[in-house]
Specification:
2 domains, 6 helices, alpha+beta, four-stranded antiparallel sheet, 20% strand
Length: 326
């Protein structure tokens, strides 16, 4: 029996410390990978920091075997490392399939629960999914090595310098705070003009969607979905009773407004890494031009520390000309 087989077949009467760390890492990974709950309520960075800490702990406890060059390994260590990479390759494949399944299920549930608001410019991989993919690629071989190690083969407590890599945890936290404070706000715009999915008598309509992400979404994001119609006399929004209604149309035209066509609210995933608050105002001026303003605040830490204010405006004339959308 070869050395790797002896390690793989070893049993123990109680879970080893290293396997407990593997269980904790798997749990944190599932929280990041799953689409439920819809929002992490600002705790996303804590999940990231926990993953970084567990990665370092497993790396130290395995002697960073997965990253050692062959020239520095004996025959048994090299065989174990190579076996870990073979199993790790299959583990990554299984993880990607699980991520895809979770993403599809989450998208379907979001469409059912959130309705039209789920069809937004943010469609795609959210920061949680990005974290799960990167973690899977980075740690898979080390996890396999950690799982195969016997409990009595775990390294004893050595010099404190072995744990210096744990400094990666506060470094990642600091880098995140700096990115939220200074990184450019990314804007994604999606317009559908004319909007053939919605019609209104004596008026033409278009759909305007925009999302502004702080630190690529790792700080938070604000968004606006607006169904805007115009009839040559006035431009107006449809679907949000808090915004002004046009005087040129009878009130019964708005008696059955479709919720979600116009929405000034973040999606649940926008609050994964911070608290997001939005407020919209609207005005139809004397010329019939519609002015919609959005003010949002993204707060990655309690007490509004590191908060950023983000603004957006949408101006459409009574003939459907977009004057501003930024």
């Amino acid at each position: 029996m070869s050395a790797p087989q002896r390690v793989a077949n070893a049993t123990t009467t109680k879970p080893s410390t290293i396997r407990v760390c593997v269980f904790l890492l798997a749990l944190c990974w599932l929280v990041a990978a799953a689409q439920l709950p819809y929002s992490l309520q600002g705790t996303g960075i804590l999940i990231v920091l926990a993953l970084v800490a567990l990665d370092v702990v497993l790396g130290v406890m395995t002697g960073w075997l997965a990253f050692q060059p062959t020239s520095q390994l004996d025959e048994r260590q090299a065989a174990l490392r190579d076996r870990a990479y073979r199993i790790g390759f299959r583990l990554v494949g299984a993880g990607v399939l699980l991520l895809f399944a979770l993403y599809v299920i989450g998208s379907i549930l979001s469409a059912i629960v959130l309705g039209p608001q789920s069809q937004s410019p943010s469609d795609g991989f959210n920061p949680r999914t990005v974290v799960a993919i990167l973690e899977l690629l980075a740690i898979a071989p080390t996890v396999v090595i950690a799982w195969l190690l016997r409990s009595d083969s775990e390294p004893a407590n050595g010099p404190a310098t072995r744990w210096i890599p744990l400094m990666a945890v506060p470094i990642v936290a600091l880098a995140w705070i700096v990115a939220v404070l200074v990184a450019p706000v990314e804007t994604t715009v999606l317009t559908t003009v004319p909007d053939n999915s919605f019609t209104m008598s004596a008026a033409k309509c278009g759909h305007f969607g925009v999302v502004k992400r702080v630190a690529s979404g790792f700080g938070g994001a604000i968004r606006l979905e607006a169904e805007v119609c115009w009839n040559g006399q006035q431009a107006f929004t449809y679907g949000d009773p808090s915004l002004p209604r046009p005087s040129s149309l009878p009130a019964e035209e708005f008696a059955m407004a479709f919720p979600g066509l116009t929405s000034c609210a973040p999606l649940p995933t926008d609050s994964d890494f911070g608290n997001v608050v939005e407020h919209c105002t609207g005005q139809i001026d004397a010329d019939g031009t519609l002015h919609v303003g959005l003010r949002g605040r993204v707060s990655p830490l309690p007490g509004d520390f590191g908060a950023r204010d983000v603004q957006l405006r949408l101006i459409v004339t009574r003939d459907g000309k977009v004057v501003a959308f930024d």
